[in-house]
Amino acid sequence: MKEFFIKFRLGLAIIITKLTVFGLRIVGRGGTSLPGKIALRICPDIFNRLSDRFRIIMVTGTNGKTTTSRIIEGMLQKAGLEYISNKSGANLASGIATTLISALSLTGKPIVRTALLETDEAAFRTLAPKLKPEIVIVTNFFRDQLDRFGELYTTLNSVREGIQGSPESRLILNADDSLCASLGQDTSNPVIYFGLGDKVYPEDYLIANADAAFCINCKSRYEYLSSSFAHLGHFKCPNCGYERPTAQIECTQVLEYDNLSSTIEIQMPGGKIAVKLAIPGLYNIYNALAGAAVGHMLDLKEEDLVYVLEGFECGFGRMETLSVNGRELKLILVKNPTGFNQVLKYLMTQKDKCVIGFAINDKLADGTDISWLWDVDFEILSFMQEKVRRFFVSGIRAEDMAVRLKYAGIPSDHIFIMHGETELVYSLLEASNENETIYLLPTYTAMLDIRKSLKKRFNLKEIWE
User: Quick one: which H or E segment has residue 138?
Assistant: First the structure.
């Protein structure tokens, strides 16, 4: 009788979730999280019930989850595997429940067998042991939304607990991140590491390691042979000897690097490949390496890896490029100091005139504490002022962003405050000329609002497509 009620609850959850998604999509809503919340209320153990119906790949970490997941999608397609994924970025338990149920028939049979799940770091702790992923990719760890995640090592330990509860999972870890690499210590899980070779980054970079300056094992200060950004690099503890592990997937050379793309050489276990990435930015080289590692696990040929990496298309809001009224609008999500600094560093490669907009919200999904803006190196924007026609700020905390730019050395008469995403988009278009680039840097909820406005005006794809 007990088993009957469990099956009944699962079946009811599937039917009601599908009906809710259908209804929400009809009225133009995403239907990515609410249906999953309903499913979890009806059948709290739904993840345990569904785990054996899918081959599950989970992607977690602070930055790069969505972009890495999109690259892995290309790898799955090239391998001829049908899959489901949470493309919208709804990566909490509710969003993942919606995603899995959408890949089931009304009778609970899987329509596809592979599920690629971008997963929030805090949620990973409880979800991974229930879902039993075949592959787990961890991108990196940085300070992010202190009001929700708390101290950095709390986030690390959440992921560690999830991995400990998934002893059969194969791990793909960032060798250059001392925190991420530590997940491969003393574990029985098979591990593949990815990272940049020593001194391959094309620019000198001052090591500014505030997040993980000290050894995770003995608390001595790390020494670095080279660094890419933040605490990522070839680290070594002079006391206990903990050091960057050997990377099986490694960028051995950066051949070209500008605001449009990066051409790199990657050492794979079977040999070297040269790839012109379709996306710019140092952080996207790391994302590409993580994706290549999954391709290697799927036994793709080297030419197939190159095909995917060169043809990759950005996910919504992650270096997404839109053609709008003869201008190129680049929508780039920002959410923490390290990621924001890398975006600003990317902006420094801009060669022609441009317009830059910021949209800063402080809703729960953005992080209610915006003091992190003062940890972002906006001062470097003063070196490219002659290329920026105007700076625009918008969002709930527009005034705070304007003050931050002023203290970064941007003249007040170059900073314009806009209230509302429609007004912001209109002003950005008005301030730019044809064939120029508009950079729009929003936090998460601001990005959703902006994209909704852009979709109405320019008929964009839905975020879940």
Answer: strand 135-138
Residues of the chain with pLDDT under 50: 147, 149, 205, 463-465
The pLDDT score that the predictor gives to residue 464 is 45
Dihedral of CA atoms 133, 135, 141, 143 in degrees, nearest 10, equals -30
Instruction: Give the C-alpha distances (Å, rounded to integers) separating 357 from 91, 151, 345, 404, 445.
Output: 27, 30, 16, 14, 15
Structure confidence at residue 458 (pLDDT): 64
The answer to whether 98 touches 21, Cβ cutoff 8 Å, is yes
Read off φ and ψ for residue 174, nearest 5 degrees: -80, 110
CATH code at 318-458: 3.90.190.20
pLDDT at 411: 93
Determine whether 302 is exposed, middle or buried from the number of CB atoms within 10 Å of its CB (0-12, 13-18, 19+). middle
**CA gap 451, 359 in Å, rounded:** 12
Give which of 252, 142, 237, 155 is closest to 194, Cα–Cα.
252
pLDDT for 131 equals 97
Q: Where does residue 227 fall: left (phi above 0), alpha (psi -120 to 50 degrees), or beta otherwise?
A: beta
d(CA 78, CA 70): 13
CB atoms within 10 A of CB 45: 12
Q: Domain ranges in the chain?
A: 51-311, 318-458
Q: In the β-sheet with 415-417, what is the strand arrangement from edge to edge?
A: 318-324, 327-332, 437-442, 354-359, 388-394, 415-417
pLDDT of residue 87: 82
Q: How far apart are CA 373 and CA 397, in angstroms?
A: 11
CATH for 51-311 is: 3.40.1190.10
User: Do 302 and 55 touch, CB atoms closer than 8 A?
Assistant: no
Q: Tell me, what's the pLDDT at 55? A: 96
